[in-house]
Amino acid sequence: MPEIIGIKFKTGNKIYFFNPNGEKFSDGDGAIVETARGLEYATVAVANKIVDDSEIVQPLKPVVRKATEEDAAQVQKNLADKENALKTIREKVSEMKLNMKLVDAEYTFDRSKLIFYFTADGRIDFRELVRVLASIFKIRIELRQIYERDDTKMRGALAPCGRACCCTAHLPDFEKVSIKMAKVQGLSLNPQKISGVCGRLMCCLKYENSYYSEVYKLMPKVGSKVKTRDGDGTVESNDLIKQTARVKVMLKDGTFDVRTYSLEDMRIGERQSTAEIDALPDEE
Questions:
Q1: What CA–CA distance (Å, rounded) separates 62 from 47?
Q2: How many CA atoms, within 13 angstroms, populate the side-chain half-sphere of residue 112?
């Protein structure tokens, strides 16, 4: 079984496995690794450990070396210099009247490339902008269009719950979230209620969706008839967390009352079907 270390890059929470190449690393150490973008500085999130072959995505690349103080200083210089780069590109975007919003800039570790991240409503012809920037910085320029979720992930924000957005705090990748999840969970379909600061559906809708999807099918259909110990009744609403239903029952004296019953306390004639929900669009 191979020995690995797990590393994170500054732009994400995902952990990548690398061969430590004979070096001993501790959590928080810096490491220089080679990626598709060239040499990059990364931070060790998992110290040396042995893992099963099934956990490895081949090929397992080796680290180039343990990061030195000079490497750390280079990273800090890159971070400091990006502010000037952002100021320059904002001026040029304004001069050229390009309809784009600059989000961030990044020098690659070896300063072979300067990457600018932006959002825009549509396609932007930025070829002239790239030529101008290349002449100013004397370096290869790349403009990369990102989208609402990427913007929030990169810059960070507080979610409606008051905590850091999941994409910034811990999610390694964006997962598919759909309006079906909100429907199954009985949430308001008002976009303002179920959308995050990025304007898209909240990532947390997916966390407990498997539970809600299973319990949903066990519950009586709203409006259907059920039998209870107090008599026949009509289901008015369901509580999927408590697995109870509020039922309007006719009592023996001919009056009506709304009472709460567990699944075990009801004889259900018609259970909820996901057919209606399955017909909803599967996209956000």
A1: 14
A2: 7
